[in-house]
Write a structure and sequence with these properties.
Strand content: 25-35%
Strand order of the largest sheet: 5-6-1-2-3-4-7
Oligomer: single chain
Number of helices: 5
Distance between the termini: 34 Å
Largest sheet: 7 strands, mixed
Structural class: alpha+beta
Order of helices and strands: HHHEEEEEEHEH
Number of strands: 7
Helix content: 10-25%
Length: about 130
């Protein structure tokens, strides 16, 4: 995907702090070294609070086969207008070892133990405790 496919030029340079969820899906993700890690597959919202809980990043696979999905706490992502994508402070190896799921099934999002494991891995406060 190109910058034009996911983020319009005006959005990349806009000071508007809001973005539609549909625009987030497909946005590229890089690490601080500039390596392309994957792209945002979806976002998970807490229905009660309205908080964005996770960005689900797709990683690996080819043409949708063998793809892995990594829930990354939203607070870990930093939007970089110059790249037109999100930057996360991790290497590919750290991402590969992160909590994930595949196309065979999503985790139980209501399971706080799973959520805590995700947040502990990234060193963040669980979104439901903020």
């Amino acid at each position: 995907m190109t910058l034009n496919d996911t983020v319009s030029p005006s959005m990349a340079t806009s000071s508007n702090p809001l973005i539609a969820g549909a625009r987030v899906a497909g946005t590229e993700v890089y690490n601080t070294a500039g390596d392309h890690l994957g792209e945002i597959y979806d976002v998970m919202l807490d229905k009660k609070t309205g908080k964005v809980a996770y960005a689900i990043m797709s990683f690996g696979g080819f043409l949708g086969l063998g793809e892995k999905y990594h829930p990354i706490p939203w607070s870990v992502l930093d939007f970089d207008p110059a790249r037109g994508g999100y930057v996360v402070p991790m290497t590919k190896d750290k991402l590969e070892a992160a909590p994930m799921y595949d196309s065979q099934g999503e985790p139980d999002w209501d399971d706080r133990t799973y959520g805590k494991r995700v947040h502990d891995y990234y060193g963040t406060m669980p979104y439901w405790m903020m």
